[in-house]
Amino acid sequence: MALFVDGNPSQIFDLANYESAIVEVAATEGLDLTAKMNVAATEVGLELRHFLVQSPGGQQFTLGHVALTDGLMQWHTLLALTAAYRDAHFQQLNDRYKPKWKEYERLAQVSRQLLMEAGVGLVFNPLPKPVQPLLGQLAGTQAAGTYYVRVEWIDAKGAASSPSDTAGIIAQEGPALTVRAIGAPPTATGWHVYAGRLLDDQPQRQNNAPLALGAIWTLPSTGVVEGPIPGTGQTAERYLRHINVLHRG
User: Which residues of the chain have pLDDT under 50?
Assistant: First the structure.
């Protein structure tokens, strides 16, 4: 999966999977679905912070330790849909959107409760998603072409972060492509580089062993090689649950 802090837990296509009409409604009513997802993420983050502080053992964790699980994605999706239909209703006081707003609000509350009871996934040594790598060129004998690159952080145990967003460069004939991963977190001990020639294809890993932090990777004269594609990030190592205790009396 990934970490909660890597970006919005769900995307517009996730909203559309729940509500096929949401993109059309957004266009008709002038709604910014990305803004609604940002609002939902902020709300989820506030609730998660409160949950961690209030849970035994949760105080040692931050939002940066929270893993993106299916339950967390569902909660975020439903909150974003709630925000979208609530806004659509209040823009024109159009009552045809009110049932959708209230139903998604109810479903979001149910989803939140189920997540807290099933457990919030946590990662002990989180590796946040890298920013886009810095691409450059050095003197070489490469053919001209376009390259697409992603990087991911690696820790001492071999766990990998979510891959960065794709960076692209149009390389001139001769100079060799160079890649540098920047902004390494304290938990990272190295990084992987993934490169490809087609935007629509997944770039493939170009290094066998993790590259040292601060190192610059240079594309060899043999060009891009085939290798594994990027993973999806760290998975939960522990689940922190909310348990209701009934007191006798």
Answer: 245-249
So what's the pLDDT on residue 112?
Answer: 96
Question: What is the C-alpha separation between 94 and 88, in angstroms, rounded?
Answer: 7
Tokens matching residue 58: 């949760």
d(CA 104, CA 76): 11
Please list, in sequence order, all residues whose beta carbon lies within 8 angstroms of the beta carbon of residue 21, skipping any fewer than 6 positions away. Answer: none
Q: What is the pLDDT of residue 144?
A: 78
The whole-number pLDDT of residue 143 equals 74
Residue 3: φ, ψ to 5° = -105, 150
Q: Is 155:235 a contact under the CB 8 Å cutoff? A: no
Report d(CA 12, CA 139) in Å as an integer.
42
* DSSP code per residue over 114-171: HHHHH-EEE-SS--PPPPPPEEEEEEEEEPPEEEEEEEEEE-TT--B-PPPPPEEEEE
Cβ contact 45:7 at 8 Å: no
